[in-house]
Write a structure and sequence with these properties.
By secondary structure, this protein is α/β, with parallel strands linked by helices. 38% of the residues lie in helices and 16% in strands.
Amino acid sequence: MFIASNVDDACLVFLFSKVNANAISALLASLDIHPILNRLTVFLPPYKSDPKEIRDEVKNYKKIIFAASVFSSQLDAYIDAIKKFKDEFKDRETIAIAGGPHPMGDPLSLLINGFDAVCLGEGEITFPEFILWFLQDNENLDQVPGIAYLDTNMNLVKTKKPPRIDLDRYPPFSVRHGLYRPIEITRGCAWKCRFCQIRSKGNNPVRHRSPDIVRKYAKIIDERFRQKGTDIRFISPNALSYGSPDGKTLRLDKVKEMLVKVREVIGESGKIFFGSFPSEVRPETITGESVKLLKEYSNSRRIIVGGQSGSKKVLEMAARGHTPEDTIRAVKLLIQNGFDVDVDIIFGLPGEEEEDIEQTIDHMKELIGLGATIHSHTFMPLVGTPFASAPAGKVDRKYQDIIAKLQGKKLLKGQHARQEMLAERMAETRKMIKEFRKKLANRN
């Protein structure tokens, strides 16, 4: 039987990174509203910190839950971190759970490297259930929904999926822990881009927080930050898809309703950023009507457009669902209406050949001629995506030449160099996991 002291004897150590702060805040918010776990003590040490730095703070707790939200680009760093933290507190009863895009796509890579369980989908139900299980009897792990773990024979076990959550029933961020983050207005994406991990998150349909609930949390942010100046930002894979039942058909009336309600609570002194990070827009959603809405109801003056390539063939192979001409049309319309525009371009996408590189370079030149800035990336084969087994992206010499020219004129910015290096490291990690799977297969 569960008793109050179970919570008082335990603490949660969530290994923190600013890059993962949105997910961490949402998961902690699921504990904030829990009738039992809202009392759980939480520590947020940076994941690259020395575990000894929190030893005095956790000295009175018998049980420690370690948690991490992990992107593929962070895999090596988090594996190193969890080993250090678990080793430092091996005198306690500990357990470690990972969630996020990488664990969902490849749970085994975490489970053979120090984590005891992985959350396979939405965490708002799974995370509290896992903690409750650990605080009670530590038996019947297979009853915790939505996780993967290794059994005593090193076989991968996946438990039943929890029901899809209603976003309106869960806070988008944790007030208790002061982690005020952008408001997630849409979860899931109707498009199936083959390089993107959003499609791998449990095949969840597109869902939206209702305008009244978005208003509620905008008010909470405003009450906290009005004296300093309120900024309301949103999390969405495609900002202008808000309110759409299928994620593709625009419902700008719903977008307007939501933005009007937010403006009601933050007043004219507050600022609304919509269509800018972390809620970019797809090219085909830019229309005369949507641009008018952005001008009237948002303070965003820099819009991020996901163009990705100047090659129609490469876009089709990636299942993007738009053409280079759609990107040009969208950028023209935005710039004509006074917006600054960043266009995402990914170097080294699968299937890219010399002709495609030349087309993308010409595309970039045309975009810059219109007044846009290039936001550069290098393709990374992310686990859980159809392109997971593709070769790591390379920044071709022709790209390097134009990158040097554009960076000098401040017309290109991005993480392409770092991502190219990370893609190579991720390829090595894939080899390690492949070898482990072979060993398991041979043993069985």
